[in-house]
Design goal:
single chain; 4 helices; 2 domains; binds zinc ion; three-stranded antiparallel sheet; 62% helix; 158 residues; mainly alpha; 3 strands
């Protein structure tokens, strides 16, 4: 208990020391400089303002300008490519959906398959494809396969 408390208090006291050092340095800087305080604050505000402006300008030149300057045919081409990718994904998705739900047999030895726990990547994959999935293993030859199903509200498969 004591050790834990000691560990927790360590970064806190370090922070205090940093603040003390910062205050001391600012005090010394204020004593040695001739620049009035309000001028320093004004300069700081100007500095923050100009850096925000620089960030804004670079954001516009990286993300907005290429989109605005793009030719209309480029835009159409991009749309075609995107839609073809979408169609391809839909086709793959349709192809891997299993029509049967419970009558799965082992493709190797034709024995019964029983459901086992899915791996994390299989769960992520089925979530990404917006499909339900089940991972099955053969009772006799240890062959395992992943099946996908169309998501339906009365099938609580996840
Ligand atoms: Zn088998």
């Amino acid at each position: 208990m004591n050790r834990i408390q000691h560990k927790q208090s360590k970064p806190y006291s370090y922070k205090i020391e940093l603040v003390i050092a910062g205050l001391m340095m600012s005090g010394v800087a204020l004593l040695t400089t001739d620049v009035p305080f309000h001028v320093m604050i004004l300069k700081l505000i100007q500095f923050i303002g100009s850096s925000i402006e620089v960030i804004k300008q670079s954001c516009i030149s990286i993300f907005i300008r290429p989109l605005v300057q793009m030719e209309f045919s480029d835009l159409i081409g991009l749309m075609l490519i995107t839609s073809s990718f979408g169609l391809l994904l839909r086709q793959i998705r349709q192809r891997i959906i299993s029509r049967s739900f419970e009558s799965h047999n082992c493709p190797v030895c034709h024995n019964r398959l029983h459901r086992i726990h899915r791996h994390r990547w299989q769960l992520i994959l089925s979530k990404a494809l917006y499909l339900s999935s089940g991972y099955y293993q053969c009772e006799s030859c240890q062959h395992s396969s992943l099946y996908f199903y169309e998501k339906s509200p009365h099938l609580n498969r996840g």
